[in-house]
Design brief:
The chain is mainly alpha-helical. It has seven helices and no strands.
Length: 182
């Protein structure tokens, strides 16, 4: 039970009170995530990039927990940090990539193109977010619980959920077949 909920008038979900500690924690997590995201895309070492990705994903999980969505935060840790990043690290360790071989003219052209694409993507994403969520509000009076999320996944979306699990199983079997040495 939330300590604030037991005190009358201090429940941050139903009252208009702002919890300063949550805002400070959000700011710190956001700064760490931005720094790690920038280091992730600027580092030359692929393993370090994957480890910076772990920090970014852990920050996203921490923000979900700050918002009161514990189920989504724990799922973020289990699925993304626990599975996807480990898969990236195994893929990095098992493959041998070609390093070097790019001259400075090609690198400058790639940098210009990547800045153009990143700017275009930021404008399109920002416009879509503003257009979609400009008048949206979070329902502070009734936060979602794990039971609500589970009911929505396993009642209405059970067929897509099972289809994705079968697809992941087929991908796992395919990866084992491809990686197997004859």
């Amino acid at each position: 039970m939330n300590v604030f909920a037991e005190m009358t008038g201090l429940d941050p979900l139903t009252s208009g009170e702002v919890v300063v500690a949550q805002n400070i924690a959000f700011g710190l997590i956001a700064i760490i995530m931005i720094f790690s995201a920038l280091r992730m895309v600027t580092t030359r070492n692929v393993v370090h990039a994957a480890l910076y990705l772990v920090i970014v994903l852990a920050g996203a999980a921490a923000i979900f927990i700050l918002l009161g969505a514990e189920f989504v935060g724990v799922t973020q840790v289990l699925v993304y940090i626990g599975a996807i990043v480990v898969l990236f690290l195994f893929g990095i360790m098992l493959t041998r990539g070609a390093f070097g071989g790019i001259n400075l003219e090609e690198k400058a052209e790639q940098r210009k193109m990547s800045i153009l694409v990143a700017g275009l993507l930021a404008v399109v994403t920002g416009g879509a977010l503003i257009n979609t969520f400009s008048d949206a509000e979070i329902a502070r009076s009734s936060p979602s619980t794990t039971a609500t999320v589970g009911d929505s996944i396993f009642s209405q979306f059970i067929i897509p959920f099972e289809a994705v699990s079968v697809l992941l199983l087929a991908a796992l079997i395919g990866a084992i077949v491809v990686a197997r040495k004859d």
